[in-house]
Amino acid sequence: MVFLNLALMVRARGPDEFWRKRRIFKLAAHYRSRTRNVYSFAIRSVHRALAYATKGRKLKKLDMAQLWTTRVEAGCQQYGMGLETFKDGLARSDILLNKKMLSDLAIWEPRSFEALVNISRERAAVEGLPDIKRRSAFNQVYGLRNLKLD
Amino acid sequence: MSFLAQTMRQVLRQVPSRTAALAGGMRSLSISPAFLQQNKPATESVDISAISKDQQKECSNICERINQQVAKSEQGRLFAVVHLCGKQFKITPGDIILVEGYWPPTIGDEISLDKVLLAGARDFTLVGRPILEPGLVSVKATVVEKTLTHTKTHFRKKRRKQYMRINFQRSPNTMIRINSIELARPVDGNSEAEVEPSKRLF
Amino acid sequence: MSNSHLFMKSGFPRAPLQNGLGRYVCQLQRITLKFCKNNGSSRGMRDFIENHLVDFAKENPGIVVYVKPRRHRTPVLVGEYLNGDREWLNCRNNTQEEISKWIDLLKTQNGSSSSLRLRKMWHTDVPSIQGPWTPFLLRSPETQGQVYPNTEASKPLETPQSATEKLIELFRQQQLEAGEEAHDLLSKKRAE
């Protein structure tokens, strides 16, 4: 930027207007309508997008935790076991797999997961936890024959 | 008296179902070798004599079948769940995992991951309480890359409060390649005391 | 930047060419240090070149080091990688320690990583060893040939015990106990 007199240079604050705006426009390049081309609209939406991205990084972790919980719950429900009992049974037999691993095992290694359910069920029966006699919601579950329901 | 009769019936009901489960193949077998922890005397003091004979036999039978399979190297590909830098990963040979944050090992280092929580194959699963006996499963890995993440923009703004902060951050990342997962030595049969189902009959 | 940003690609962790499976190959091939001989902004770079550059080159025989003086320009680090990537770093006014850290980063990474957002922290070619879960995993094969409506399948899973059944069971138990007592008596008498 070229200043022809001193007064203009004193008045100018911060970086040059062109570059300051271009930074924002670069981030708004894929927006639609006037949010792409009009600075006053663009900066509003860019600020909002950046704030969302900052929050989203934390929310993603919470979302994943929720997803794992759902998956593990579905995994043990097919053997007729509640999530809380399953987790309690595992914790009481010193098996410290986390939710992510349990959900991974339930999907990718179902036989190992079945073994974990068996262990947890036995432990729950020994410790006298409630809620181990519930049958599965699925009617004809093949694995139930191997489980000791009594 | 009636109580005794009931327990007897229970035992009788259990035994055939158990054998049926075994005959159905080694699908859902699970044994936990004794990782005897110092701070858990209660689990240490399990009396083997209190466990019924057929249960002991069943446990040693399972161990033997696993050992036979490993000896013939028919067990196929193994997988393991390892605990690394506060996170758990399910890995199999050839995998890539990333460790986030500062971690001293540098590129080209060959490391062995010792905290194995669970190891398994097509036909059997070894469950650690909480980790498997050291030296039972050896997991070897190589550090492939150490780099920084992309620049994350940390931006906070409050409307109508003249509050706006922007920060940029990059955190270190380490990429690890898993080279091999192997059963280092046979699963020992003297760990029946720790096998879960046997506790049922006390 | 926001995640849907146009100029930031996203990807998954990959290592080039099975690196690390056999032996590890350093991916950095060439490193160029550009600096000015008398400008203050390249003082740290000059210090680094004087004190540590020879050691660095000796420690890493696989990396070609170029040093390029040029007048009145800011110091720059350029790394070139096996996969063709080129990482350019501005080192204006950096100290000697900072420069050795940046060089270390260039050495340890596999390519320019600054522009890639990782979506996963895990990569595997064999996700499942026992076979993944399917909806038919725990279903018995008999369900395939079942004809509906089916009285067997439409029963509730758990029917609560009715009072009559309870009474019957109690009665049976009593009978069993009585039978056992009688059995005991019989055996005693036989022993006598």
Jot down its keywords:
heterotrimer, A: 150 residues, mainly alpha, c-terminal domain of poly(a) binding protein, 2 domains, 7 helices, rod-shaped, disordered C terminus, B: 202 residues, alpha+beta, 3 helices, 22% helix, 34% strand, ribonucleoprotein (chain B), bL21-like_sf (chain B)
Brief characterization of the structure:
The complex is a heterotrimer of chains A (150), B (202) and C (192). Chain A is mainly alpha-helical. In chain A, 65% of the residues lie in helices and 0% in strands.
What would you note in describing this structure?
Chain A contains seven helices and no strands. Chain A has 150 residues and is mainly α. Chain A folds into two domains: 16-57, no CATH class; 59-145, c-terminal domain of poly(a) binding protein. With 202 residues, chain B is of the alpha+beta class. Chain B has helices at residues 2-23, 41-44, 53-71; strands at residues 30-31, 79-84, 87-91, 96-100, 110-113, 116-120, 125-127, 137-148, 152-158, 163-169, 172-183. In chain B, the strands form three sheets. Chain B has a five-stranded mixed beta sheet, covered by helices on one side. In chain B, strands 4-11-8-5 form a four-stranded antiparallel beta sheet, with no helix packed on it. Chain B has a two-stranded antiparallel ribbon with strand order 9-10. The longest helix of chain B has 22 residues, at 2-23. Chain C has a domain at 19-118: 3-Layer(aba) Sandwich (Glutaredoxin), CATH 3.40.30.10. The B-C interface holds B 1-2, 5, 76-79, 89, 91-92, 94-98, 100, 106-108, 120-122, 142-151, 153, 170, 173, 175, 177, 179 and C 1-2, 8, 13-15, 19-21, 24, 26-27, 105, 107-110, 113-118, 121-126, 129-130, 173, 176-177, 180.
